Amino acid sequence: MNSPEALPFDAATVLGAGLMGRLLALTLARRGCQVSLHDAGGQEADGAAARVAAAMLAPLAESAVAPASVVRMGQYGLDRWPELLESLAQPVFFQREGTLVLWHRQDAPEAARFAGVLARTVSEVPGLPAMQRLDAAGVDAIEPAIGKRFAQGLLLPGEGQLDNRQLLAALLTSLQALPNVRMHWHSARAPGDFEPGESERIIDCRGLGAKPQWSNLRGVRGEVIRVHAPEVSLRRPTRLVHPRYPLYIAPKPDGVFVIGATEIESEDMSPASVRSTLELLSAAYSVHSGFAEARILEISTQCRPTLPDNLPAIRWLAPRVMQVNGLYRHGFLIAPAMLDTTIELLTANTSALASSFALATE
Ligand SMILES: Cc1cc2nc3c(=O)[nH]c(=O)nc-3n(C[C@H](O)[C@H](O)[C@H](O)COP(=O)(O)OP(=O)(O)OC[C@H]3O[C@@H](n4cnc5c(N)ncnc54)[C@H](O)[C@@H]3O)c2cc1C
């Protein structure tokens, strides 16, 4: 929760109006700050990783590729999101129906390794609901649209998802309603463009755009496909164990599904490759043949802003200039933890939350 203490400054310039920038700008403005928000792109968040993301909130599933600190931040986020969403001007789709994990027979060894890592996470992180092993009838019972096509699966109870684009739009509307917020679109800026006085702060949330000031940031390319498949009814995000990257199908409102995501060590933002597109669409088709008749709405590419250890960090670049970055593939999962920790640091220059998450702050 945000500290009730008064902020020791009364004006803030937030650079980047993606996920973290919008959340921080709104929180600071509601705490009485005069906020200027700059983004290199437009108000649709067209330059943000946040616009392309699937926005799954899956701490246990992510533990296959992330340490316990990220899992704990994710648990915090799952509980905190409803409160954050409740305060917004427009409704945002959010659910906690769990994650279903499936695999084809040939990927059974990889699935066994995945299940082993998750079992270890559950034993290490208190409060995580245990995963449930399913046979074909069990998969059919919770996701009848899939039927008995898969001999085995795992259910990760309590995991969630939200609609990223509804969230970005609701944050925008909430910001627009505040008289103490000024938004500047198509306004690429760097921290050095400003000279903050005693009672001002710069908060740099430019994701990969902060690379000139954070040299070991890198982009991790992800390709995703949005389809409209009104005849497919999946209740929860479904992950397919895959030897190269965990593939998923995330249902969104109105028959839309996000199928993703590749994970490629590259900052190449060029359009998706044929190979990735084939892999993603075949994965979806193998889970539900109804995807054959789906209509492709969009094939997008973005890069996840990532630090060398793949972990998020908050640091002071200069007195009164804070940077929040490295949210990698977990941005929505950990955003509430990053938000509340940043507010604690901005308020008191120390954060109990940061210590509890073992989060790097300098
Ligand atoms: C394919 C893909 C799938 C993902 N799936 C998930 C998922 O399922 N769950 C999950 O939790 N996370 C997911 N993520 C990760 C999540 O999207 C990111 O971690 C998150 O968006 C990072 O937030 P951010 O605010 O740091 O950066 P961004 O959201 O990228 O926002 C940065 C903003 O800064 C702006 N900017 C850049 N340079 C400048 C400049 N010079 N001046 C002003 N503005 C500038 C950009 O235009 C942008 O709007 C996914 C990401 C990708 C790419």
From TrEMBL:
Source organism superkingdom: Bacteria
SUPFAM superfamilies (alphabetical): FAD-linked reductases, C-terminal domain, FAD/NAD(P)-binding domain
Instruction: Fetch the Pfam families from UniProt.
Output: DAO
Kindly state which keywords UniProt assigns to this record, in alphabetical order: FAD, Flavoprotein, Oxidoreductase
E.C. code: 1.4.3.3
Q: Tell me where in this chain the FAD dependent oxidoreductase domain is found.
A: 13-338
State the needed cofactors, names only.
FAD
Q: Does the keyword Flavoprotein apply?
A: yes
Catalytic activity annotation: a D-alpha-amino acid + O2 + H2O = a 2-oxocarboxylate + H2O2 + NH4(+)
Family under the similarity heading: Belongs to the DAMOX/DASOX family.
Q: Which PANTHER family match?
A: D-AMINO ACID OXIDASE, D-ASPARTATE OXIDASE
Instruction: From the Swiss-Prot or TrEMBL record, give the protein name.
Output: D-amino-acid oxidase
Q: Which organism is it from?
A: Variovorax robiniae
